[in-house]
Amino acid sequence: MEKPSKDSFIPDFPQPRQASRFMNPFTDMGFKRIFGQEANKDLLLDFLNELLEGEDRIADVQFLDKEIIRGNEQKRGIIYDVFCRTADGKYLIIEMQASSQKAYRERAIYYSGKALSRQGTPGEGWDFDQLAAVYSINFLNFVLLGKFRSDIFLMDRDTQQVFSTKQRFIFLEFPLFRKKEQECKTDFERWIYILKHMETLNRIPFQPMKAIFERLAKVTNVESLTPDERYAYERDLKAYRDYKAQMDYAKEEGIEKGIKKEKLRNAKAMKAKGYPVNDIADITGLPIQDIEKL
Questions:
Q1: Which range of residues forms the domain containing residue 158?
Q2: pLDDT tens-digit profile of 30-67?
Q3: What is the DSSP string of the chain?
Q4: What is this structure's pTM?
Q5: How many structural domains is the chain composed of?
Q6: Are residues 103 and 236 in the same domain?
């Protein structure tokens, strides 16, 4: 058989993953481009007003310093994804968490508490009547509380009466939003649908319904990035995908270990009742040598 020439030989490399047209909003750079830039503040305002439709209207926001120093000798602090103040004085903490994090509820409480406590002036008395409300808005790409949207206030357990509106937590659990494109009836649902599926979309839907979605398409189009921004985003996206793959593998590994543990427990119980080893192996799918060791 004639050996192919150097020029004619084409190695069978795996095909690269198809490039996404729009930025992934669960990357740090993608999220902050949509919701954390002065130039794109109209996107943030529209989303917030759809989120709070029927109860509040935010006319404007001012982006604030996202870093709060703890004040101890190590000078360690916290950094919000987006931290801003509304025209009527509320503070908004807007966080994105791409993967499950231990004690995320406690983290949200701590972050909100820091935004409350920093309103006091060191060395001076507090004017508690002037304490501004703090809203903690959390975009979660994992399940935390078991429903898509959770609104949490301080309230009396028995009467369900709101005790204070100074602290509010909103958790949006994207894996639990399962509506299809044609099933989205409100602009808030349309926002969520787009954000959840953005990285896989060839077009941003709902643009004829609302001009802000046309703006969103332009802002998040990967082709609109400068070469430096594109490089930084691709690096950010790779880190996100690598971490997600690790978490998915760990979860799958944990499920498999749990299944095997349950099989071994059942096999031990059957063996104690006198079931033949071959029958236990047929029922559980475990190797005979594993059953004999029980």
A1: 28-120+128-224
A2: 999 999 999 999 999 999 999 999 888 999 999 998 76
A3: -PPPPTTT----PPPPPPPPSB--TTSHHHHHHHHS-GGGHHHHHHHHHHHTTTT-----EEE---EEE--STT--EEE-SEEEEETTS-EEEEEEE-S--TTHHHHHHHHHHHHHHTTSPTTS---GGGPPPEEEEEEESS-SSSSSEEEEEEE-TTT--EEEEEEEEEEEEGGG----GGG--SHHHHHHHHHHHGGG-SS-TTTTT-HHHHHHHHHHBGGGS-HHHHHHHHHHHHHHHHHHHHHHHHHHHHHHHHHHHHHHHHHHHHHHTT--HHHHHHHH---HHHHHT-
A4: 0.76
A5: 2
A6: no
